[in-house]
């Protein structure tokens, strides 16, 4: 029985000292006046009666009621029911009371308070308070209401009687029949003696909270999501604050939150109503649930770590710094769904067409219980099977129980969960274990739910109906618990009359008679003492455990890993080990180590090893011991420190059982080799292990005669089996039931036995811990690296070989969590750690103080004894023979490559790339590999073999050039790498810009000094002092000292530089060149492929003479000195000059007539690099511009890089110019407004005028400019209608600009990526004609930042297109991110996702997109007849990229091998791209870092190659080859920053005739040429170009692909770009081919691994294989193998013949097919299946072997952009080959390209197509070439040359000169020659 109320208190208002209406509470009376012994009077009640403060009011308020909760020091809660009403206070009374209180105050203060408040009458609050330990809110409300009614209505009943009865009323705590109660069952009827009657229903089970309607109200106020958020916050111990204007609502909300947490109990600060005076409590650091009146909302705004729930507003505010862990899925979703079904039953049927007429909505009270039922089910799910993880460590005198958190989380599969681990660590769960852990106690609804309903809940998950049914059943139980007898709830309590509180003359609440009330209380107390004691029925029983934790949560997809086959492999391997079948065991070991990733395999290993332990000992030989230790280490390395799955626990008894004999009397146990694991330093692990073992021993204590069983099971699992777990609970329950019946002696005996058991286990564990914590070599005073005892960051779990078994890591971190770590040694560390453990477990287990002291004395002795044993073991273990390590494999070196550091033994560790380590893609684990790292003058090479013996005899090679190293750093092992890699070795990570990464761990035999020497050498080689120290220079000069150039003068004059240049030129140019007067060009045409470059006749091509000077140089220039002539001769050789002559841009000639006709000339003003050092010596400038003008113009441009012509469109004659960006003054001068007042003639003005003249001269050089009369049609002149059209400019258009200049800005913003919505439809005919109608003659593409504020001049004929471009530093940053994306340093959980995310973040493809976009724009402009000047940055980075791409897209010549070489030599090398600076090739450039501008260009070419695979003569491999060697420094080609620097070092002309004998190649081009002659490595078999086709690639990001150069590698041989090093192919000619290709048995299978084999070699394409087989056959027959190119040409010729013979009726169909495929956007042609005209029927698809244009797609005449919109192409689309228009035809001899013979060809003159075509013979249908008559300039009589046909009249020779070249013809006689000349002239005149 319990008292209904403990105290009755009357609290009144007491005025404050200031008299301003604020006062304080004062207890007038309290009953009983003495404190109860069992329940002292709670302090501070007066604060809680008026939480907002005691105040006077000017009007009466209606009475209020609420319940405040106070918690005492013993955590007992007191419910204070406060009933408050207001009484009138006379002003005079208030003043007199104030005077009394302030008599001692000063007079001035008295005057101040003399006028307190104005109104005559004020109302003060008075509170009646009931204090109780029971929570019966309605009963308290009724009782206090009755007292008020008696007072206010003046009833006859005595107040003292009522209050006395109230204080003496007793009720049962829980339901059930009680003696001397008048009621039935658990309902108690009470009366306070005023004619009232109340029925109090006590709950059936007092453990369940009572909520009434509070939970349902909370959900109505806040909603489902908010309440779930608060629920999770409360469970994870966050601070929660409720705000409301209603005190009762605050109490209800707090009560509801506690009810939801059942069965957990909240154990932190709990104050549902916090008074204003105590608001500072909100700053407490501990968690709380507090309610505060919303009047103080402003005070709560500053709380940064409090979750605030506003009940009135329905909001929950979570601060940013707080992360609330939510329920794990799918529990969260299920809970939300169930709550939604309960709170909103109409939601399910809201969408029904015919909803049911009535919905059975629950009452509020019932809904409250249904919500609680949902949360009960939630906890049953969360804590399902918790009883299987309880450790009972003492049964008597009281059960002591601990919970194994790690095992529970592991078996539930929630180790990584965010929510449950926090709950298990919390105080509430600790209380739960203490309360619900005992096996013998009363059982409530939660216990039954966990034990009996688990299967049902699992089965119900799919069905909402069944879930709702279960919820309603549980709700019924909860409702019945609160209302056991709903039928008898009849209350009869008087209420005051309406409006009674407003009476004017209400007397104050009377003073109660203390004596009367005390007498009533005393009487009742005496009666209770004489009454017989109440005996409660004992309801204790064995708590059911429920179903065991099975594999319910193990659905994590480990199906493959857990397969029975793997477990079988583990069992077999262990059997082989113990049967001494070591070869079989060795074969299976790698598979076993891989299997250890899965938990079942680890558990299988522990079980199998356990079978081989007899009597706690298993002695092994050395090899067996090694195998067992290796498996144990591998098993442990994947265990976490908490050991959730009990693997370390199961291994613990085994590591002290397996041992080997080192010598007589000295035994080494396995524990000395498995210490390097974090789990051994985790105190919680040892505690759980200790408690588990103690539980087993306690069980054995009470199970007589089962010691053997105990020993068997104790040696096995860490978690005891299910039936045994059940039995220990049963034993404990039985013992608890019998305990009261035992005699005291028996009780003492059992207590002593249990205590001794715990004590003996503590000694045992002190020994075990010393085994696993003391290192084998204790002399170093260092512990194994580990978290509790060392540095957790540098952990690597690796096994220790038997040669130095157990030797510890050298880098132990002394910061270990122990005090005075610096001064202590190993023994002290371990003693302290064990002491800490012993103190904790012994205190919890109730070990006596004497025993505990004895343990503390014993532990240092145990540790010292073990150290002595270990010393002997360590000594003996050193004498063991060392393990044989694999032999080091030496890499093959290039000619001239020398070794700098011999092989250092290392392990190659896997990085973030999955393939090599056998990741998710499968394949063998090639990494980690064991071998050596070699440093040579050229490369860093790793060569070794995989550690995993199952991979076979593979060799792993990973290397990269030293010059490409971008980052070298020391790394620490982030995670356990592999069992084979020793612990504590130095690790390096080397990253290369060839997209390679070496993560190496040095072997223990490599001294740290050697590692440092290696790093120093590496740094020195990577960043040499001077460029002359790089490998490309030192390779051939091993004996010579490196060339050290003299120090330059600070300000050298122009003359001095010229002298130096000439000296250098003399020194480097060979003798044979100095003596020559005339220079004949080298046979570069032969490589260029068939076009004769010089329009003039060959006798006088280039002569360096005085005449040439006078004719081509302006009068201002001095005469060239003889030494300068030599330089000139060499300059003419350069790629620039050769290309200018091919393009017809001007020649150096002595014919005076040239200068008048040619619009451009080759200018020699920069021949000594005086104007611009980064430009070539010869430049193309307008004919009218004089040299001295150029000198002045150049000053306006950055780096003096003034505009020069790079390329000319042969059809439109538009030119492409390049320059650096303008200086600021240049901009102002060039584009100054014509109306600006001129300040007078000055240097700047004349310069700007000359600039204008220069640009005008460029415009004048364009023929159509003259035709158009110099008219002004510009891009700016577009109308708004045009701007909104769908053409290119329409898509480029930006918004917000309306000036005529707007479009220029729009072009720039479009290109700068402001509108990346979509690329324009490339190349529609309407767009081209549109541009032709409205265009400026010259567009200047410049940087937006330079051209800001520039105004266009309407009189000029050029326009500025400002664009935003990225800077070099952005390229550098982007490249770094790209490298990390393609070659990540560390593995990630989701590699593909991480790769895509990193790739996007790098923005590399965005930059490629922008470059291509600008290039396509320039191509369009050039193709429509406008010239373009690209003037960006300094003119050597993005300018070079754009200019090169434009030429590549516009001119098919540059898409050949020779043309591409020429393009790179001209635009990148001659025009001064800063290769050394951007590649950081020397020490000076180290700080600048690597900026791959050239690589970005090659990537753009790769993107175009992918889209137009038939337009390029070279293959993708050629681009990769150049990418690799542009940074490798193997060749001198890509060194230095300009021709000037190359000349200074003597590199520019050295390649001619210098390399005698087998010298290394100095030029990459030489190397490519030689290799290309031997093998078709760089040739593209799909090459079938269309003449003069302009390419327009898509540049959208969706069309761009990541280059496989970035991601592919070949581990079998390293990079495949140094052909001499490729295995099996030292010299390509002698190569017998890949292992399978030339083998006699082709059926022999071979697995090709993507990251290991070179796929193109192992499985070559069909053509390469056939060519290779042909070569092998020729060698077998003893013939000299022919060149592959000759074979290829023969093949093409024979194919044409066959095609001619097979010509049939299928031509029209195949032609139509081809036209259909040719009509694809962008003229992209199919990738390899090429439709031939000559096909018959279904065989129309053949592999095209023709490198010339096919007849089906006859070459266009070069009209706009090579589109098929011109007449000739349209004609070929609709006319079959037979009906070609042949105006005149016949045989003519034609002279081939340079050094090629004269050949007879069948020529056809076609007037319709305006072409001269030629064929091999009259019957040949396939055209071999076309001369477009539109390009013919003149027809002149010719002269016979060497190899001309004999017996032919000289007059039968004639030459046809075109804009591209001169064709030499010979007819059979003079008459025929004349006829041909007349016919061709006739065609020309007709046109």
Task: Give structural notes.
- With 1887 residues, the protein is of the alpha+beta class.
- The longest helix has 30 residues, at 744-773.
- The radius of gyration is 49 Å and the shape is elongated.
Radius of gyration: 49 Å
Strand content: 5-15%
Shape: elongated
- Distance from N terminus to C terminus (CA atoms, Å) equals 124 Å
Unreliable stretches: 106-119, 176-185, 551-561, 705-726, 785-823, 1038-1059, 1061-1123, 1150-1154, 1225-1242, 1266-1333, 1551-1557, 1624-1643, ...
Helix content: 25-40%
Mean pLDDT metric:
75
Structural class: alpha+beta
Reported for the largest beta sheet, the result is: 7 strands, antiparallel
Count of beta strands? 45
Please render the helix and strand layout as text.
Layout: E1 2-3, E2 7-15, E3 22-31, H1 45-49, E4 54-55, E5 64-71, E6 77-90, H2 91-101, H3 107-113, E7 121-132, H4 137-153, H5 159-168, E8 170-171, E9 187-190, E10 198-201, H6 214-222, H7 224-235, E11 239-244, H8 247-260, E12 269-271, E13 288-293, H9 297-300, E14 306-310, E15 315-317, H10 331-343, H11 364-382, E16 390-394, E17 400-403, H12 405-412, H13 420-425, H14 427-436, E18 440-441, H15 445-452, H16 454-460, H17 464-482, H18 514-530, E19 541-542, H19 564-578, H20 582-595, H21 599-611, E20 618-620, H22 622-637, H23 647-655, E21 658-663, E22 666-669, H24 683-702, H25 707-714, H26 722-738, H27 744-773, H28 826-845, H29 849-878, E23 899-908, E24 929-936, E25 939-946, E26 956-961, E27 965-970, E28 987-992, E29 996-1002, H30 1008-1022, H31 1031-1034, H32 1054-1068, H33 1071-1074, H34 1084-1088, H35 1106-1112, H36 1122-1133, H37 1135-1142, H38 1154-1157, E30 1160-1163, E31 1179-1182, H39 1187-1194, E32 1204-1208, E33 1215-1219, H40 1224-1230, H41 1243-1260, H42 1263-1267, H43 1280-1283, H44 1288-1292, H45 1302-1311, H46 1325-1333, E34 1338-1343, ...
Parallel strand pairs: 11-13, 11-14, 12-13, 20-21, 33-36, 34-35, 34-36
Antiparallel strand pairs: 1-8, 2-3, 2-7, 3-4, 5-6, 6-7, 9-10, 14-15, 16-17, 18-19, 21-22, 23-24, 23-29, 24-25, 25-26, 27-28, 28-29, 30-31, 32-33, 37-38, 39-40, 39-45, 40-41, 41-42, 43-44, 44-45
Helix pairs in contact: 4-5, 5-18, 6-7, 6-8, 6-11, 10-11, 11-17, 19-20, 19-21, 20-22, 21-23, 24-27, 27-28, 27-29, 28-29, 40-41, 47-48, 49-50, 49-53, 50-51, 50-53, 53-54
């Amino acid at each position: 029985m319990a008292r209904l109320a403990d105290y009755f208190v009357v609290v009144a208002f007491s005025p404050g000292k200031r008299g301003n209406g604020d006062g304080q509470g004062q207890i007038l009376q309290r009953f009983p006046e003495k404190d109860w012994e069992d329940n002292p009077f709670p302090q501070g009640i007066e604060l809680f009666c008026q939480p907002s403060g005691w105040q006077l009011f000017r009007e009466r308020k209606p009475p209020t009621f609420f319940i405040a909760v106070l918690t005492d020091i013993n955590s007992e809660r007191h419910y204070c029911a406060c009933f408050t009403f207001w009484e009138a206070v006379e002003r005079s009374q208030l003043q007199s009371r104030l005077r009394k209180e302030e008599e001692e105050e000063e007079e001035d203060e008295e005057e101040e308070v003399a006028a307190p408040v104005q109104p005559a009458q004020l109302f003060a609050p008075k509170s009646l308070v009931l204090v109780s330990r029971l929570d019966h809110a309605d009963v308290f409300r009724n009782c206090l209401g009755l007292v008020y009614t008696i007072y206010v209505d003046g009833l006859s009943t005595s107040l003292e009687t009522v209050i006395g009865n109230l204080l003496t009323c007793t009720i049962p705590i829980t339901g059930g029949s009680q003696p001397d109660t008048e009621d039935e069952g658990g309902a108690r009827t009470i009366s306070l003696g005023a004619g009232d009657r109340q029925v109090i229903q006590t709950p059936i089970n007092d453990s369940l909270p009572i909520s009434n309607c509070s939970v349902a109200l909370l959900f109505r106020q806040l909603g489902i999501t908010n309440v779930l958020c608060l629920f999770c916050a409360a469970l994870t111990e966050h601070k929660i604050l409720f705000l409301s204007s209603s005190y009762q609502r605050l109490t209800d909300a707090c009560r509801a939150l506690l009810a939801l947490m059942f069965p957990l109990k909240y154990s932190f600060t709990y104050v549902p109503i916090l008074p204003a005076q105590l608001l500072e409590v909100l700053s407490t650091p501990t968690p709380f649930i507090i309610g505060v009146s919303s009047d103080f909302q402003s005070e709560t705004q500053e709380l940064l770590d409090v979750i605030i729930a506003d009940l009135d507003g329905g909001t929950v505010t979570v601060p940013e710094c707080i992360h609330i862990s939510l329920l794990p899925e799918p529990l969260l979703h299920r809970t939300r769904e169930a709550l939604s079904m309960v709170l909103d039953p109409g939601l399910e049927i809201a969408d029904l067409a015919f909803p049911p007429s009535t919905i059975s909505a629950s009452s509020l009270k019932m809904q409250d219980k249904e919500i609680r039922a949902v949360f009960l089910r939630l906890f049953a799910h969360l804590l399902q099977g918790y009883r299987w993880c309880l450790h009972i460590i003492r049964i008597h005198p009281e059960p002591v129980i601990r919970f194994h958190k790690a095992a529970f989380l592991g078996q539930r599969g929630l180790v990584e969960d965010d929510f449950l681990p926090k709950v298990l660590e919390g105080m509430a769960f600790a209380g739960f274990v203490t309360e619900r852990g005992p096996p013998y106690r009363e059982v409530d609804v939660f216990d039954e739910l966990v034990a009996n309903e688990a299967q049902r809940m699992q089965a119900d998950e799919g069905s909402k109906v069944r879930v709702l049914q279960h919820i309603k059943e549980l709700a019924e139980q909860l409702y019945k618990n609160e209302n056991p007898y709903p039928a008898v709830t009849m209350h009869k309590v008087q209420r005051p009359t309406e409006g009674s509180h407003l009476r004017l003359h209400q007397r104050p609440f009377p003073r109660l008679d203390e004596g009367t009330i005390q007498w009533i209380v005393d009487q009742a107390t005496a009666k209770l003492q004489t009454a017989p004691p109440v005996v409660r029925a004992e309801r204790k029983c064995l708590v059911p455990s429920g179903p065991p934790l099975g594999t319910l949560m193990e659905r994590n997809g480990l199906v493959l890993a857990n397969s029975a086959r793997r477990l079988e492999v583990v069992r077999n391997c262990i059997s082989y080990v113990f049967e001494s079948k070591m070869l079989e065991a060795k074969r299976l070991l790698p598979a076993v180590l891989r299997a250890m990733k899965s938990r079942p395999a680890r558990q299988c290993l522990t079980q199998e090893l356990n079978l081989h332990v007899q009597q706690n000992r298993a002695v092994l030989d050395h090899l067996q011991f090694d195998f067992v230790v290796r498996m144990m280490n591998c098993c442990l390395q994947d265990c976490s420190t908490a050991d959730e799955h009990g693997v370390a626990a199961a291994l613990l008894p085994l590591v002290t059982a397996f041992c080997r004999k080192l010598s007589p009397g000295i035994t080494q146990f396995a524990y000395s080799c498995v210490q390097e694991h974090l789990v051994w330093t985790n105190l919680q692990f040892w505690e759980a292990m200790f408690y588990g073992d103690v539980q087993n021993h306690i069980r054995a204590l009470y199970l007589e005669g089962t010691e053997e069983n105990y020993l068997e099971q104790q040696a096995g699992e860490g978690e005891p089996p299910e039936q045994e777990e059940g039995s220990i609970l049963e034993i404990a329950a039985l013992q608890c039931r019998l305990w009261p019946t035992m005699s005291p002696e028996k009780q003492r005996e059992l207590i002593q036995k249990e205590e001794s058991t715990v004590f003996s286990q503590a000694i045992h564990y002190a020994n075990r811990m010393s085994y696993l914590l003391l290192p084998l070599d204790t002399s170093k005073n260092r512990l194994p690296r580990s978290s509790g005892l060392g540095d957790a960051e540098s952990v690597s779990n690796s096994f220790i070989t038997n040669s130095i078994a157990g030797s510890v890591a050298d880098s132990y971190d002394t910061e270990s969590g122990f005090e005075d770590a610096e001064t202590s040694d190993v023994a002290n560390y371990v003693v302290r750690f064990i002491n800490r453990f012993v103190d904790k477990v012994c205190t919890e287990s109730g070990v006596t103080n004497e025993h505990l002291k004895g343990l503390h004395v014993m532990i240092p002795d145990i540790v010292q004894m073990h150290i002595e044993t270990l010393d002997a073991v360590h000594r003996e273990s050193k004498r063991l023979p060392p393990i044989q390590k694999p032999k080091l494999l030496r890499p093959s070196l290039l000619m001239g490559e020398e070794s700098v550091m011999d092989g250092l033994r290392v392990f190659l560790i896997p990085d973030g790339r999955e393939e090599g380590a056998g990741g998710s893609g499968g394949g063998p684990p090639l990494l980690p590999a064991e071998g050596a790292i070699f440093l040579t003058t050229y490369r860093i090479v790793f060569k070794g073999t995989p550690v995993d013996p199952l991979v076979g005899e593979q060799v792993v090679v990973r290397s990269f050039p030293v010059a490409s190293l971008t980052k070298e750093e020391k790394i620490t092992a982030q995670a356990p790498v592999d069992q084979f890699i020793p612990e504590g070795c130095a690790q390096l990570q080397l990253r290369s810009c060839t997209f390679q990464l070496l993560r190496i761990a040095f072997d223990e035999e490599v001294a740290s000094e050697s590692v440092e020497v290696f790093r120093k050498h590496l740094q020195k080689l990577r960043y040499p002092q001077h460029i002359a120290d790089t490998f490309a220079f030192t390779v051939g000069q091993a004996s010579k000292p490196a060339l050290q150039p003299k120090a330059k003068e600070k300000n050298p004059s122009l003359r001095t530089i010229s002298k130096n240049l000439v000296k250098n030129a003399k020194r480097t140019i060979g003798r044979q060149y100095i003596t020559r007067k005339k220079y004949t060009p080298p046979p570069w045409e032969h490589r260029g492929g068939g076009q004769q470059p010089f329009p003039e006749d060959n006798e006088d091509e280039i002569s360096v003479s005085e005449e040439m000077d006078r004719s081509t140089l302006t009068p201002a220039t001095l005469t060239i000195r003889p030494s300068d002539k030599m330089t000139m001769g060499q300059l003419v050789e350069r790629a620039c000059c050769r290309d200018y002559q091919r393009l017809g841009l001007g020649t150096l000639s002595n014919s005076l007539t040239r200068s008048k006709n040619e619009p451009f000339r080759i200018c020699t003003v920069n021949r000594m690099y005086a104007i611009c050092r980064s430009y070539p010596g010869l430049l193309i400038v307008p004919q009218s511009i004089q040299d001295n003008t150029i000198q002045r113009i150049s000053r306006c441009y950055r780096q003096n890089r003034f505009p020069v012509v790079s390329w000319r469109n042969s059809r439109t004659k538009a030119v492409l110019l390049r320059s650096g960006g303008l200086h600021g003054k240049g901009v102002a001068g060039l584009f100054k407004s014509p109306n600006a007042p001129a300040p007078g003639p000055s240097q700047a003005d004349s310069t700007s005028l000359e600039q204008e003249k220069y640009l005008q001269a460029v415009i004048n050089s364009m023929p159509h400019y003259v035709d158009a009369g110099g008219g002004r049609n510009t891009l700016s002149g577009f109308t708004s209608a045009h701007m909104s059209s769908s053409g290119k400019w329409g898509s480029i258009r930006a918004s917000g600009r309306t000036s005529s200049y707007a479009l220029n800005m729009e072009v720039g913003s479009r290109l700068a990526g402001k509108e990346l919505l979509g690329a324009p439809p490339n190349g529609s005919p309407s767009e081209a004609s549109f541009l032709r109608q409205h265009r400026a003659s010259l567009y200047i593409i410049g940087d937006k930042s330079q051209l800001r504020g520039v105004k266009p001049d309407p009189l000029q004929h050029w326009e500025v297109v400002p664009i935003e471009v990225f800077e070099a530093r952005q390229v550098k940053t982007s490249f770094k991110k790209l490298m990390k994306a393609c070659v990540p340093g560390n593995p990630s959980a989701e590699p593909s996702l991480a790769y895509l995310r990193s790739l996007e973040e790098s923005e590399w493809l965005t930059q490629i997109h922008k470059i291509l976009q600008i290039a396509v724009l320039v191509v369009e402009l050039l193709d429509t007849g406008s010239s373009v000047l690209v003037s960006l940055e300094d003119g050597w980075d993005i300018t070079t990229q754009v200019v090169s791409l434009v030429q590549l897209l516009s001119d098919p010549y540059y898409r050949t091998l020779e043309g591409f070489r020429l393009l790179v030599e001209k635009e990148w090398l001659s025009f001064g791209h800063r290769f050394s600076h951007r590649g950081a090739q020397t020490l000076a450039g180290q700080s600048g870092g690597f900026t791959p501008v050239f690589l970005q260009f090659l990537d753009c070419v790769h993107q175009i190659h992918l889209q137009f695979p038939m337009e390029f003569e070279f293959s993708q491999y050629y681009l990769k080859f150049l990418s690799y060697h542009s940074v490798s420094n193997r060749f001198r080609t890509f060194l230095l920053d300009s021709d000037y620097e190359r000349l200074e070092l003597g590199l520019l002309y050295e390649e001619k005739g210098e390399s005698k004998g087998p010298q290394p190649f100095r030029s990459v081009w030489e190397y490519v040429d030689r290799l290309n002659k031997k093998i078709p490595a760089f040739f593209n078999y799909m090459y079938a170009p269309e003449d003069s086709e302009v390419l327009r690639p898509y540049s959208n990001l969706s069309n761009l692909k990541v280059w496989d150069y970035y991601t592919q590698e070949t581990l079998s041989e390293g990079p495949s770009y140094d052909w001499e090093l490729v295995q099996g192919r030292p010299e390509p000619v002698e190569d017998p081919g890949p292992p399978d290709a030339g083998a006699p048995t082709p059926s022999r299978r071979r697995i090709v691994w993507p990251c290991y084999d070179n796929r193109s070699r192992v499985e070559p394409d069909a053509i390469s294989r056939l060519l290779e087989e042909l070569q092998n056959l020729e060698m077998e027959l003893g013939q000299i193998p022919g060149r592959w190119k000759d074979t290829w040409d023969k093949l093409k010729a024979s194919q044409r013949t066959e095609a001619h013979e097979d010509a049939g009726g299928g031509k029209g169909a195949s032609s139509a097919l081809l036209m259909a495929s040719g009509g694809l956007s962008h003229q992209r042609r199919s990738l390899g299946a090429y439709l031939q005209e000559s096909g018959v029927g279904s065989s129309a698809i053949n592999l095209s072997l023709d490198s010339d244009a096919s007849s089906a797609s006859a070459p266009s005449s070069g009209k706009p952009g090579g589109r098929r919109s011109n007449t000739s192409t349209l004609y070929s689309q609709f006319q079959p080959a037979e009906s070609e228009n042949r105006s005149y035809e016949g045989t003519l001899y034609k002279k081939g390209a340079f050094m090629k013979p004269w050949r007879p060809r069948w020529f056809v003159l076609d007037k319709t197509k305006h072409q001269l075509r030629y064929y091999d013979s009259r019957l040949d249908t396939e055209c071999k070439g076309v001369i477009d008559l539109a390009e013919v300039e003149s027809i002149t009589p010719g002269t016979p040359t060497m190899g001309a046909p004999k017996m032919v009249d000289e007059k039968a020779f004639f030459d046809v000169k075109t804009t591209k070249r001169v064709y030499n013809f010979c007819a059979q006689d003079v008459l025929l020659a004349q006829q041909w000349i007349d016919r061709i002239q006739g065609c020309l005149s007709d046109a």
